[in-house]
Amino acid sequence: MPSPGSGARHVILAFLLLVTGGAWRSMPGGRRRSSRTGLYQPISREGALILNNLLLCTLAATVLLGTLYPLFLDLLTGAKVRSARRSSTPPSCL
Predict the structure, then answer these.
(1) Higher pLDDT, 92 or 8
(2) Which of 10, 18, 58, 89 is the most exposed place for a label (fewest CB within 10 A)?
């Protein structure tokens, strides 16, 4: 008998396969190069993908560092890292 949430898993899996398949289809292998020198131009689909990958990797590394730094600091020195000071008044910007 399938678990109660298995329908959502199938929908998410189908969505991921659709997105991944679309990405693979948009970048076919063996494409002709766009310039005479054999290099890709920086303002192109390939350049945008490289920029996107650099941005994604930077953000992922930042999140990983922000997640693991307090754990390692606590493990090595016993110090606790606090992200915010508790306040009795609600923030006015919300």
Answers:
(1) 8
(2) 89
The single-letter DSSP state of residue 43 is S
Rounded-to-integer distance, Cα 48 and Cα 29, Å: 17
pLDDT band at 30 (very low <50, low <70, confident <90, very high): very low
State the residue for tokens 């948009």.
Answer: 26
pTM score: 0.45
Count of domains in the chain? 1
Contact predicate 40/33, CB 8 Å: yes
| Enclosing domain of residue 59 | 42-78
Q: What are phi and psi of 56, to 5 degrees?
A: -65, -45
In a domain, 12, yes or no: no
Outline where 27-94 has alpha helix (H): 45-77
Residue 18 pLDDT exceeds 50: yes
